[in-house]
Write a structure and sequence with these properties.
It contains one helix and 34 strands. The longest helix has 12 residues, at about 5-15. The protein has a single domain, classed as YVTN repeat-like/Quinoprotein amine dehydrogenase (Methylamine Dehydrogenase, Chain H, 7 Propeller), CATH 2.130.10.10. The radius of gyration is 20 Å and the shape is globular. The protein starts with a helix and ends in a 5-residue tail after the last strand. It has one helix spanning about 5-15, and strands at about 65-75, 80-85, 95, 100-105, 115-120, 125-135, 140, 145, 150-155, 160-170, 185-195, 200-205, 205-210, 215-220, 225-230, 240-250, 255, 260, 265-270, 275-285, 285-295, 300, 305, 310-315, 320-325, 335-340, 345, 350, 355-360, 365-375, 380-385, 390-395, 395-400, 405-415. The strands form seven sheets. Strands 4, 5, 6, 7 and 8 form a five-stranded antiparallel β-sheet that branches. It is mainly beta and about 425 residues long. About 5% of the residues lie in helices and about 50% in strands.
Amino acid sequence: MTRTLNSVSSLLRHRHQRSTVLAALSGIVLALVASACTSGVAPHLAEPPGGNFTAALQTSRWGPVVGHKLVICVVNTGSNSVSFVSQSGKQVSEPIPVGNSPYAVAVSPNGEWAYVANTGWGVTAGNTVTPINLITFQAAKPIKVGTGPFAIAVTPDGKWAYVANMGSMITTSSQAAGASLYAGTKVIDAHTVTPINLSTGRPAKAINSGPGPGAVAITPDGKWAYVANSGAPNNYAGTVSGTVTPIDAASNTPGRPIPVGPGPMAIAITPDGQKAYVANAGWWNHPGHTVTPINLATNTPGKPIPVGAGPLGIAITPNGRWAYVANSGWGRADTVTPINLVTDTPGLPIKAGPGPDYIAITPDGRWAFVADGGSLAGPSDLITPIDLLTNKPARPIKVGLAPGALAIAEVPVFAHEPK
């Protein structure tokens, strides 16, 4: 439901009990790939994509690029799949299977690939990233990373991806009646970030980060990756501190951690690369309520900005004037808070679906899409569009079970699509 091990602990467990329940999508035509196939299903090429991930397939065989189509890539944590949605929301693909309990997705700058982090859970913690070709809608061979990959970001040149490995959790004793939700639970912290060479599909040496790395963002010039460390404790008895670790992308060496609020689980960087904004989610019984700005010229934090409870997702408009924060409240909230980045002040909250986890904004800055993971009553199967001209939600779109994250790709359309 939510973008931290707490949510994976509480609601993924809830989702796995319902893993066989999937939104009925069988009657929906996959219009997103209709132009790329002969019968409305994804094409099967003689040589499926693999190896050179940034180049994808030889585009020359399809002729020149004649346009682009917007595709929303939605990770369905509760059904181990990814759905692809048109911008209008009228076309939703049949889900494509990936690894166990996927929870993050990033897309290549050229719009040809989506990379899905397969987080897993407990003794079945994941350790792979699945590439999906957005031209053919085929999955390539999974790439091995660290334990519990929980966030992923791709560099602006499309050459590298950085994966934050959250780790895993195991239950060491049974819970007594009335005990804390996480009594008897122990964190196995990976403490690492794995770079992936996207030209070869091979991981590089893991980089040490802070405790509980759960979010990562890369500066527009590609020189730095910033990793939000949630500070995952072993008993969840109270609030914990949090930090952000800068990583020099040229040498893959970490810098001095930057203190922020408790349990930071989302980070976004302004288009001019001058500031980062970190959503401090806190923890289950002690949710955070703030977003911390960071001056990236000096790596110093600013005054926290008040938002809703348990902020787990943040996205910035292309013009750099607004940030939108998804407030999950650990399954007890359903709002999105806009922040004026000129003044660093919050606006009126916007109604979203239950337990909003993640948020992404279209390249034209007109729409935001929110993944509604679900509430304490159960997982959702919806994403909510928000019209950013009016800050009003539109009709929710049905996808797979417990959408955990989403990313928006501008997928190229070729003169002669693959058959």
